[in-house]
Each structure stands twice: as structure tokens, then as C-alpha cells.
Amino acid sequence: MPKDFEVSRLLDVYGALLPEKQRLLIELYYNDDLSLSEISENEGITRQGVRDALKRAEQQLRSYEDALHLAETIDELRKAQSADDKQKLYEIIDKL
Question: What CATH class has 5-68?
Fold first, then answer.
């Protein structure tokens, strides 16, 4: 299962909204770089169970972003800030 590092970014923004077990599994996989087998052994669940939980968590994180666009807004704010574009910052803030 190839890692999509966009999930790590979404996890930073929306991770607290996930159920504790899903958040733990996705953190172990994406942030701690453990394999499905390693997580399976450590957590006492099947490798398939880990994979299924990760897929559900990834879908949930993406659905949060589709609905709220917070990660996208954070990226826009950072770009405007690094460019010292106060007008753009105000435009983004006004959209919120």
C-alpha cells in the first residue's frame, strides 16, 4: 500500500476528529513509518484489519477536507504570509 503523504497533512489538521483507534493506527503508519505487519503485531489485530481501518480513516480525512477546506486555507495563508502579501491575507480571512 503506497503512502500518500497528503494524508499526513490532513491528519495534522483533522486528526483530532477521528476515533482514537483510527487516529493511532494512521499515526503509526504515516508518522512513525511502521508497516501494516508491524502495526498488526503491536496492536493485536490482523493486517487486513489495519489496512481497512487506515482506508476508512483516510476517506474520513478527505471528506473533512472536501467539506471544510481547512488544509487548503492554511496553505493559502502560509503562501500569502511568506510572500508578505497583506492584501491576499485579508482576502483569505474575509472568506472565512
Answer: mainly alpha
